[in-house]
Specification:
Keywords: Membrane, Transmembrane, Transmembrane helix. It is built from 11 helices and 11 strands. By secondary structure, the chain is α/β, with parallel strands linked by helices. Strands 1, 2, 3, 6, 7, 8, 9, 10 and 11 form a 9-stranded mixed beta sheet that branches. A two-stranded antiparallel sheet has the order 4-5. The longest helix is centred in the N-terminal third of the chain and has 27 residues.
């Protein structure tokens, strides 16, 4: 119902929906001006045009309501937004997995939940050799430049090196991103400015790593991460992701593109029609 109300109140929806009916009535007016019809015939023509216009507007309305995916062109870059499973994409596509700022890898439902994307990733690709991934991250010269604090005291355990939010470690065809901050109780959290800055840094890191390949990104911030000083539903989080992509000046040229994946029922909370406005007006 909320989507219906937003679309009905949207000025751009009515402007675009009235183009076809307006053309029909314009053509009919021209014909009626130059061709003589009796009164009953004119009435039937006008009633027919009104009926066609009403049906067309209903079609546009229901089409907008039933959208489940959309493609946007943001400053020349293609972004597709849809529901999907990140682990079903092929090897020639980079998939983004969100970690915390320490790149913790212990899947114990305390530090990392088994049901989270990074928990699934670690259990799927490192079921018995998690120390191998830990070693690769700590020895990576690029990642060493992104450490902002060493030997951090963590009362409940976990790694000791804190990385800059938005930093990416490239592991095979996956981009592992330091996305959320962890407090002393190992709870993931972010403030609004941290969330926005993290995304801007993330897009800039992607720009240097994606090698003209498609990049698939989950809706970042929609999991267990707590928003400390703001509240945001999936649609608002998606708008922030798009806004930070736009101001980061990252360019994805064909055949590369960005795909933002919606998990579970998040697609039901997205007003896909409203996202089209971003192409023209931004957010």
């Amino acid at each position: 119902m909320w989507k219906f109300k937003e679309i009905v109140k949207d000025k751009d929806f009515w402007v675009s929906s009235m183009v076809f009916p307006g053309a029909l009535f314009g053509l009919a007016t021209t014909l009626l001006t130059f061709i003589e019809f009796d009164k009953s015939c004119k009435e039937r023509i006008l009633i027919g045009l009104a009926s066609i216009s009403f049906i067309y507007i209903l079609y546009k309305l229901f089409k907008s309501l039933l959208l489940k995916k959309i493609k946007l062109n943001i400053d020349g870059s293609e972004i597709e937004i849809k529901k999907g499973d990140i682990f079903t994409f092929p090897r020639n596509v980079y998939k983004v997995i969100a970690f915390n700022e320490f790149f913790d890898t212990k899947v114990d439902d305390q530090i990392i939940s088994r049901t989270s994307l990074n928990g699934q990733y670690l259990n799927k690709f490192y079921p018995e050799n998690i120390s191998g991934l830990d070693k690769k991250i700590i020895q990576d010269s690029r990642m060493q430049l992104r450490i902002v604090e060493k030997n951090v005291t963590r009362p409940l355990g976990g790694k000791k090196n804190r990385y800059r939010l938005g930093s990416i470690y490239k592991d095979m065809d996956f981009f592992l991103v330091a996305f959320s901050k962890f407090d002393d109780e190992n709870q993931a959290n972010l403030m609004l400015h941290e969330y926005a800055n993290c995304l801007i840094n993330f897009w800039n890191e992607v720009n240097g790593l994606y090698a003209q390949q498609e990049v698939v990104v989950p809706l970042l911030g929609s999991g267990i991460t707590r928003h400390k000083d703001f509240t945001a539903d999936p649609h608002q989080l998606l708008e922030i992701m798009l806004w930070t992509f736009k101001i980061s000046k990252v360019k994805f040229r064909e055949p590369s593109k960005v795909t933002i994946l919606l998990h579970g029922n998040h697609h039901k909370k997205i007003n896909f029609y409203k996202l089209k406005e971003f192409e023209k007006n931004g957010i």
